[in-house]
Amino acid sequence: MTRIDRLARSMKDLQDIVHELKGRGVALKATEQPIDTGTAAGKAFLDMLGVFAEFETNLRKERQAEGIAAAKARGVYKGGKARIDPEAVRKLASEGVRPSHIARQLGISRGTVYRFLPTSMVDGQG
What we know:
Blueprint lengths: L10 H13 L5 E2 L4 E2 L3 H35 L11 H9 L4 H8 L3 H7 L2 H4 L4
Antiparallel strand pairs: 1-2
């Protein structure tokens, strides 16, 4: 592989991958970075890179949350647009249209259809 930071987003994931590879008798070597898990120095460097990759991911998440909070405070953040109308799903179901046909017609998954149907309609009582 070329770069370790593309391998995992958290230290735990990175350690799990390295442990799995080691269990199979494979050493991890990055072509663009001085990392070879077959050496003590390579293992130490890998752990440091893993810590920084996780730190960077956490910083990104924090900045995103701060940006969303600031936008909400200004009243400009509305969240994502609803992709479907739950009432359309319920209306079609009440007309006797089967969930798989509703899904195809609305371009959504069958699981999404079931999520918007009352339990009574799912059980065939509606």
